[in-house]
Amino acid sequence: MAILEQMLIFLFLLATGMFARHKGFLTAENHRQLISLVVNLCSPALIISNDLGSLPSDLNFFIRALYIIFLCQGLLLLCGGLYQFICRRDPRSVLYNYGTFLTNVVFIGIPFVHTLYGSGESMLYMAVIIILNNIFTFSYGIWLLKRGTVQKAKLSTMLKNPPLLAAMGLIVLFVFKLQLPDLVGSSLKMLGQIAPPLSMMLIGASLVGTRVSELLKDSALMIFTLLKMLVIPAFIVLTLRFFTTDLNLLGVCMISIATPTGVMLPMLTTLHRPELSVMANRMVTITTAVAVLTIPAVNLAITVPLSV
User: For the domain bounded by 2-302, which CATH number is listed?
Assistant: First the structure.
């Protein structure tokens, strides 16, 4: 399986990052700076530098893909809301909801999609998902944390997000049949190729010092991890298979919902619900730690026969 082989490569990169942190090549200070480099420079370059020339000239395939992507994201929101409702007596239930649909599509999703499914239409699909993810994060997500108060999503906050701007730019290039100059495209592509290996190494470095025993003792956290990383993504992918046979589109949707909880969760929780910040950090840590193992498992939902 190509995806299993790629996960083994990612595991090697994770281990390399852990080794680099242990030896002091990666420190707490340069770790944050390198994450900023990946998110604000390398990932946007990886998005915008995609060659769209091989895609069909009409928009029909893109419109059909939009339907599937909106269905995918809608089901994810529905699962998160249902999870919160079932656990409504738990004061942390809002995080179960938010942590389900706030996925790390930029830092982990983009490198995975680019490596596993290549450029072109895959990154075009990912661009739409990034836009939706940002809208949900800074509107519905903040409303969940501050329920009962009036809180409007700030457009200026979203527009300061380089991956979002790159995603919007890629869609503009596609719709208007534009191409970047060869020199610019090649330069951005070279910059973007740094993102996949560096992001995996940084994830590995972030796991150093994690007290696994403390995480394993939290039964609610373990249940969340099982549902968020395996059950919900597999259910959604199996549902989407009744609506499309496009394996490339299914793969991108799978990656977008099976990636770990996004790092924005603890940041926004600290701002709006500081009493829940410890749980938010744990959710990001544990889902990130298991992602390299759970994503290949969820990928089976794309290929397993729907009937015997």
Answer: 1.20.1530
Nearest alpha carbon to residue 229 among 285, 276, 275, 277: 285
Q: How far apart are CA 54 and CA 46, in angstroms?
A: 17
Length of the chain equals 308
Identity of the residue numbered 143 = W
Please report, for the chain, the start and end positions of each structural domain, with discontinuous segments joined by +: 2-302
**Amino acid at site 95:** L
pTM: 0.81
Start-to-end C-alpha separation, the chain:
22
Contacts of 291 by beta carbon, 8 Å cutoff, 6+ apart = 108, 229, 258, 259, 260
Q: What φ, ψ does residue 103 adopt, rounded to 5°?
A: -100, 160
| DSSP H or E segment with residue 185 | helix 182-192
DSSP labels, 211-277: -HHHHHH-HHHHHHHHIIIIIHHHHHHHHHTTT---HHHHHHHHHHHHSPBPTHHHHHHHHH-GGGH
Give pLDDT tens digits for 212-244: 777 888 899 999 999 999 999 999 999 999 999
Q: Report the b/e string of 255-279 with b at 16+ CB within 10 A.
A: bbbbbbbbbbbbebbeebbeebbeb
Q: Compute CA distances 15 → 38, 194, 204, whole Å.
A: 19, 17, 6
CB-side exposure of 278: number of CA atoms within 13 Å?
Answer: 4
Integer-rounded Cα Rg, in Å, for the chain is 19
